[in-house]
Design brief:
Chain lengths: 475, 166
């Protein structure tokens, strides 16, 4: 789990051949504004020791301060490794085995890390920057610093720190090759890279503190070692311009640089000099917590995390836990809220149903799920019981009976018998001819009866015809 | 106890919280779906109930009309016959009597005359149907008298609804 320590103030402490340099950087500050807090002779005097101890202890007590040191390049080992495994997870597991084969000592005795794992450009596997240090060397360094009252929070690897600071202060041209040559007090470090990418490094002894810079013979020896270091980079074959940056106390020696540049002159090499001279490395170390590019490692976390880092981690874990809890509460709240909203809608629908049933049937608490059936039964029952009220609204038969009697008078019909109700009609009578009963049947048909004349016969005695009309209609 | 185990134990409540939230979130869709189905069922039932309510409306309108009538009993048919000028006493049979919707009484009566003037019968029926509350002629059977035109046997069935007077 990655966390960004909340560092506001950072101290870089560097031990050179003859002195200690302490640089303070503040978050957001430009490197040029970093403050050189002190330079102390090595070994530290009792007074300096106390001053340094008090200063750093107070600074660390603030909770937002880091004290940074580096492990010299020669005490560690860093190299890109490749695997043909195309699974990122599997590649991550194979690195220790691959590293173990290359190390001259057991990997169990080492602290190691595999940084910047990435797929190969042709997709045929992965590569990672393996960096390792023997635990004994790390412990020895830590003991040494502690004996001087210094308890670094971050112990990075010198080539990484210097390279990162170099590309921070002098941003690279994308794709172009760069060499950082740090002419340290006792050792010269070459870091090879391309663009922002850290590639490899090489060290060679060159005792500037002992006056080697002014000694042409020793300078010649350095030239030879530099040439050899460059020649041995099998996997670093620069094309185009190579930007060569001098840094460190040696870069303040004009004569030495002139001699070196003329000796290793190359058409494609362009030489630059970093600012800050002897303070370059100390500033780089102070800058370290604020840098996000380039490879980074904190050996201290791997062997014995500093209490400050433990606190940061705890705080980070607490914040993460709080964030998870808050997110969980929000998620749970959202889920419960959605459920509650639907449940409320369900209750509303149920209440509307209950109210409707109560309104129609007067039943206060109808059984759930059968409300519609209850209402249907109630309505059917009520309609059935209320049918007489409807019947009373039907048209009166009196009018029909009167109308039939009127027709009889008009058409000279005689009715022997007339029977009329809502569904049936039956008339027995006599007429002068067959047309009149047919006309009467037409009247009945207009009222919706299906009319039949089952009896029709002549009556010679009466000189009239006898007829019977029967009709039926749906109610 | 190592730091890692302590951290692990410390993380347990958080993990439980997250698990609980995830469980709630994962089961929410099915829960919501079920609630939605219930709501749809309830709404469909409510629509059905409203349809049934609509079926009741004509009856309610008729009830309202009956309620608007004077709260008095159906007029006596024998008196109506006398008032219509029918001298012959009618044979009046109570065919049916029942309570309607707890508020009214339904009556069905058969009125028989062996020889009645059809003209007087019409007056009788007119009076019966014009009364408040009214009678309604639901069936009539007339048989003409052979020797007396305009007279005959009449069998009328009348129905009527009157307020239920306690």
């Amino acid at each position: 789990m990655y966390y960004q320590p909340p560092i506001q103030i950072s101290y870089g402490i560097r031990r050179t051949g003859r002195r200690w340099i302490l640089v303070r950087a503040k978050a957001g500050q430009a490197p040029a504004d970093y403050e050189i807090v002190g330079e102390y002779s090595d070994p530290l005097s009792e007074g300096d020791l106390n001053r340094l101890r008090v200063l750093l202890t107070d600074a660390l007590a603030s909770g937002h301060t880091s004290v940074n040191a580096v492990l010299p390049a020669g005490e560690g080992w860093a190299q890109w490794m490749e695997t043909s495994l195309t699974s990122s997870a599997k590649a991550r597991k194979i690195w220790p085995t691959l590293l173990d084969v290359q190390l001259p000592f057991s990997i169990e005795d080492c602290a190691c890390a595999f940084l910047e794992q990435e797929a190969l450009s042709d997709g045929a596997g992965y590569r990672a920057l393996a960096v390792t240090v023997r635990r004994s060397a790390l412990d020895r360094r830590l003991d040494e610093w502690r004996s001087q009252g210094i308890d670094p929070v971050i112990i990075d690897y010198e080539p990484f720190v210097l390279w990162s600071f170099s590309i921070h202060t002098e941003p690279p041209v994308a794709g172009e090759y760069r060499v950082l040559a740090h002419l340290g007090e006792t050792e010269t470090l070459l870091v090879f890279g391309r663009g922002e990418e850290w590639h490899s490094m090489s060290t060679c002894a060159f005792d500037i503190a002992g006056g080697a810079a002014d000694d042409p013979e020793q300078a010649q020896g350095l030239i030879t070692r530099l040439r050899r270091a460059m020649a041995s980079r099998d996997d670093w074959k620069p094309v185009g311009h190579v930007h060569w940056y001098w840094a460190g106390p040696g870069s303040e020696h004009e004569g030495l640089l002139a001699q070196l540049e003329s000796a290793i002159d190359h058409d494609r090499f362009v030489y630059y000099r970093h600012r800050y001279g002897a303070y370059f490395a100390a500033r780089a170390m102070a800058h370290r917590p604020f840098e996000t590019s380039g490879p980074r490692i904190n050996w201290r976390s791997q062997v014995d995390p500093h209490p400050a880092e433990r606190r940061w981690q705890k705080r980070f874990m607490r914040r993460m836990a709080a964030a998870y809890v808050v997110a969980s509460i929000l998620l749970a709240g959202l889920s419960l809220g959605v459920r509650a909203a639907f449940r409320a809608e369900h209750r509303e629908a149920q209440a509307a149903l209950r109210d409707a049933v109560r309104d129609i049937t007067g039943i206060a608490s109808p059984q759930k799920g059968v409300e519609a059936e209850v209402v249907e039964r109630f309505v059917n029952d009520r309609l059935e019981k209320g049918a007489p009220l409807f019947d009373m609204r039907k048209p009166s038969l009196r009018g029909n009976a009167i109308h039939l009697l009127d027709r009889a008078r008009l058409w000279n019909l005689t009715f022997d018998r007339l029977k009329l109700d809502d569904r049936t009609v039956s008339i027995d009578g006599t007429a002068e001819d067959w047309d009149r009963p047919e006309m009467l049947a037409g009247v009945l048909r207009e009222w919706g009866y299906e009319v039949d004349m089952p009896v029709r016969k002549a009556s010679p005695q009466l000189e009239r015809v006898l007829f019977r009309l029967e009709g039926r209609r749906a109610e | 106890m190592t730091v890692d185990r302590r951290q692990l134990i410390g993380a347990l409540p958080v993990a439980l919280c997250v698990l609980l939230a995830l469980a709630l979130a994962v089961t929410a869709p099915s829960n919501v779906q079920q609630e939605r189905q219930w709501i749809e069922t309830k709404r469909a039932d409510l629509a059905l109930i409203e349809n049934h309510r609509a079926r009741l409306q004509p009856l309610e309108a008729v009830e309202a009309a009956y309620r608007a009538l004077p709260r008095q009993p159906l007029p006596d048919l024998a008196r109506l016959a006398v008032a219509a000028g029918i001298q012959q006493a009618a044979d009046i049979q109570h065919r049916e009597k029942r309570v309607v919707l707890n508020a009214w009484m339904y009556h069905r009566r058969e009125v028989i005359w062996d020889a009645v003037s059809f003209e007087a019968l019409d007056r009788f029926l007119y009076r019966a149907e014009s009364a408040r509350p009214p009678w309604r002629l639901m069936s009539i059977a007339l048989t003409a008298a052979e020797d007396r035109p305009g007279f005959g046997r009449a069998v009328c069935i009348l129905e009527g609804v009157e307020p239920r007077l306690e």
